[in-house]
Every structure is written in structure tokens, then in C-alpha cells.
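User: C-alpha cells for this one?
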Amino acid sequence: MKFEPIKYYYQTQLKWTMERKGIISCKDKPDISVACAPEFGGHPKIWSPEDLFVGAVEVCTMTTFLWLANKKRISIKSYKSKAVGTAQMAEGALCFTSVNIKVRIGIADEKDRPRVEGMLQEISQWCLVSKSIKTEVKIEPEIFVE
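Assistant:
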């Protein structure tokens, strides 16, 4: 008997509306207005591919962390983060060279701190988005008891 690897498919649709703008859609989810980044002649108040890229890394980091916390039965009281993606010339092309995520994590008990720190190290093994890109992802945690 031959086993196939697990495959998941994610589908979006994009419709150009005007200028350098469009609407991206996904079945049963809210539409998102998108545009070219202002640095490239786009629109400052609309999500750009660059914003979505950094956001995808940040969201995947959070959801992976929360998945690990649940799996390890660690009580997390709060989670907030800010991410900055750096795009620059590298190897002759403009690309994202790093995404730095500053995360504030509230825990219920000081005894959980070492386990939470360990989980943060594990994220790179499990985060689908981070594993799928060559950009370096750095996590700078601040852990406190709530």
C-alpha cells in the first residue's frame, strides 16, 4: 500500500480594481483591499504584499506558539507582538533579509518561564510560514507574570 504525504491547499482570488489596487478574497473570509507599497508608487493606507508578508510571519509565529502552549499545557495569560521586516539589496536583488518580532507574553506562574523560553526556540521547527521562506526570523521575547 502506498501512502501519500499530507497536502493542504490554500486558495485566494485577486481582482484588480484601479490604479495599483485590488481586492484579494478567500472563500468565507472578509475581503482585503491590497495595493502596491508606497515605496513603489502605491497607496499608504492599503495593505501591500510587503505588509502581508511580515504579517503572515507574525501571525504564524503567534499561532505556532499558542499551539505549543496548548500541547504542553502551559497557561498563557496574554500575547502581543510587533514585527518589523527589513527589505534591502542582497545578492543583487531587493528582498526581505529579516523579520524581527518583539513579543510580550504574560504567564500565570514564574515556574513556566523556562518552558515558555524553550517553546520560543521551538517555533522555528514548526511555523509553516517561517519554514517556507529564506528570510531570517528573530524573536525577541519579554516574558512577565500576570
